[in-house]
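Continuing the series of single-chain predictions for the mutant panel. This is the parent chain; the variants come on the following pages.
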Amino acid sequence: MLTTKTGLFPPVNGERIRCVIADDHELVRYGVRRLLEDSPDFVVVAEAGDAADALKLTLKHRPDLVLLDIGMPGMSSFEACRLIEEHCPDSRIVYLTMHEDKEYVQQALRSGASGYLLKDTPTPILLRALREVRRGERYWSPQILHQLRDDSKQDGVAQVPLRRNSLTSREREVMKLLAEGQTVRQAATALGISIKTVEAHKFNLMRKLDIHNKAQLVTVAIQKKILPVPVST
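Parent structure:
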């Protein structure tokens, strides 16, 4: 991956996207750090050589993004991802790896990560993907998406469902507004995002939670404490 200067993306409200990088190769960490910090809207707050240290540093710094390699020694990156999601739900995890193996992709889906990027991803695409993940979107390298689609076509159904509890903070916000009775358009206005983005979040959360109608949406929102329990008068 080549570095690039990207003055087109200044920090939003003066705030930079805070990142933790985890890779067992120091040279890779150095390269990713340089790549990110060549862009004015990113800053690397910590580096880790294994998943256990990545977990500790994430708990300490509460970054916006955690970039995890797969196959590091010691603790599994997938277990670290699950623990980060549990204890730091606002820190989004992106796997940055050379692995395209079906098994790894399936585990990544199960772990609830927000992205899966290959290390040969061109720099402009990588930066764009990380920005999208920071905004609450998900991003998977095209090769990985093709693999998932092929698996789905062969078996008739998707191989691995996303975890039922792996809602992003943005999906929880959308769920709350919709459960309160707001329309997609009203939710988009309230959150300052596009109607299309709200519809995408709605689709994702309903698919993850196996919700099919408004009543189920309200019930699950209450169960997950996203919506307060109604008080009878």
